[in-house]
Amino acid sequence: MIKRALTIGGSDSGGGAGIQADIKTFSAFAVYGMSVLTAVTAQNSLNVNGITGIPPQFVSLQFESVLTDIGIDGVKTGMLFNAEIVQTVAQKLNENHIPLVVVDPVMRSKSGDILLENRGVDLLMEKLIPLATLLTPNIPEAEMLSGVPIRTDEDITTAAKKIHDLGCKAVLIKGGHRRGNATDILFDGVEFSKFTAPRIDTQNTHGTGCTYSAAILANLIKGKNLRDAIRLSKWFVTEAIKHAFPLGKGHGPLNHFIRIEK
Ligand code: PXL
């Protein structure tokens, strides 16, 4: 039977990030995609022009609706918007023992707009991160979650250990915001692993983080081990950036339609 992946996150009207990127990514890996919306953004490649949150009870109702009928093999969380939604999502994942949970701790958009209010960050750390199979912060998010300013490779190791102590099974700190190659560091509580790809000189990188975490979830659901899932997803994101579409006047979207072996 086809595997079922659920993304819990925000809608990007521009189609490049958020649940739109997630569902395109699930489809690229031949996994069935479902969505629980937490917020709707009015945005394009240039700006986020508005955000409206979904009432937490309606977030719950969406989750219950797909769970009780279609079933869920794994969940990815993205933009959660506010503390009440973080609380609701953590409670639903906890009550229903979802086996695979990839948490992308989305805090701000590329244009700097707030996608998770500050009270939500505290609850994310307390309630949601302990449920994560994998947490995928970028550098600013890792700094926020660990309290460690990140400048050197050693800072990344220190931050990864502190974040792992919050209770996730593993943490992948993404190096996209640093200079040089795009190198991500995984810590699973025992050992560190490195995943490297060349940096591609383009401004069409809207939705990169969403796509990466959705691809990792799709591959975990299909039975890949964590390191293989990350390796394949890193390759997918790199190719999708290389062949990105120059749509809009700002950061264009990735190309999710590149060929992959199923
Ligand atoms: O990249 C993080 C992200 C997640 N979800 C939504 C977004 C963005 C970034 O713009 O718009 C809905």
Structure description:
This protein is an alpha/beta fold and 262 residues long. It is built from eight helices and nine strands. The strands form two sheets. It has a six-stranded mixed beta sheet with strand order 3-2-1-4-5-6, sandwiched between helices. The chain has a three-stranded antiparallel beta sheet with strand order 7-8-9, with helices on both faces. Strand 4, helix 3 and strand 5 (101-103) form a beta-alpha-beta unit. It has one domain (4-242): UDP-N-acetylmuramoyl-L-alanine:D-glutamate ligase, CATH 3.40.1190.20. It binds 3-hydroxy-5-(hydroxymethyl)-2-methylisonicotinaldehyde. 3-hydroxy-5-(hydroxymethyl)-2-methylisonicotinaldehyde is lined by residues 9-10, 12, 17-18, 41, 43, 78-79, 106, 109-110, 115, 209-210.
